[in-house]
Amino acid sequence: MFVAAYWWEVRPGKEEQFRAAWRRGTELIREKYGSLGSRLHRDVRAEGHIRFIGVAEWPDRATWQRAFDARMVYDDPATRRAFTDAISDWSEEPLLLMEVTDDLLDRA
After folding, report:
1. Whether this model's pTM surpasses 0.90
2. In terms of CB atoms within 10 Å, which of 2, 40, 65, 88 comes out highest?
3. Burial class (CB in 10 A: 0-12, 13-18, 19+), 5
4. CATH code for 2-99?
5. Residue 46: pLDDT above 90?
């Protein structure tokens, strides 16, 4: 398994819009590119800014790389607009790229 982590700083008052668009986008990426899904984490920064960190799981690096090279584009412009409208800052490059060596998460 392969993991890619990303971050986005979200505009004040746009957190729920961002989360809804992130959920829908994640579903579409799973359907189109074969990801295993993702988890979203909320991080309140010292200055009060809210940053979200998404940790996506992929079957392997090659599957992630194909999706990344395609810019993970999906056919839902409204979701993409809602997503980008909610973001004030982000990095297009992954925060972390990691191979999973041991997995003890309880998925039950």
Report:
1. yes
2. 2
3. middle
4. 3.30.70.100
5. no
